[in-house]
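Researcher: I'd like a structural prediction for the single chain below. Treat it as a standalone chain; there are no partners to consider.
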Amino acid sequence: MDHLCVAHRGFSGIAPENTLAAFKLAIDQPFVRWIELDVQLSKDGVPVVIHDFTLERTTNGTGRVKDTDWKELKRLDAGGWKSTEYQGESIPALAQVLDLCRGRVSLNIELKTAGDMYPGLEKAVLREIVARDMENEVVLTSFERSALRRAKELAPGIRTGLIIDARPDDLAKQLEGLQCSFLSMGYPRLDRKLMKDLTGRGITVMAWTVDDRSIMRRLASLHPELMICTNWPDRWEQVFLHSKHRMWHYIRNLFIK
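Model: Treating it as a single chain, here is the predicted structure.
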């Protein structure tokens, strides 16, 4: 796997997060193998891609996502807050993102919910995935464990993952109980021992959110299979691909001499 690059909410360092512009820019980077995104439901039950429960930070709208119909949501400007270049960029439906990414990049889809905030979220998301035969191209992740359980009940074969920013002693046991084969963890919590234990149990681990090159290098030393989620995929390229090229030239020169 070699520290797979995961574009956090797309290439969100440059383009407005969780928009088609950010996803297209991420896909354009040949080294980006995964994209992470957030899904909620509109008032009328459409899975939409947005991080915050409220609209104010990343759009020109107000109020809660769950209280707004899809017809209203898609009219909002979700790009102008980032720069005038992206003014008019809209909130995408999950269906649009799946159509864009299918066969091109894998998706880490966070079920963005809390408690019973979004009844039917898992079913709506799975409906869009299954309709496109993309079950093998996604992992459904969440902080909300009940959402992961519901997803597994609806689609036992779907891959799921827990998001956590803590380090419980029985983490491996918790993942087993949730039937999760994926873990999304805040990077300061990770170390070599935990990585060895989890990967030895068949758990894929992703570190979030890492934008500092020196931290990327330190994390790389923990385990070769650690996935790295970043807002700036170009920095991932500078750390990993450039270092590989330097090593290749060094070895090549040894043999030439």
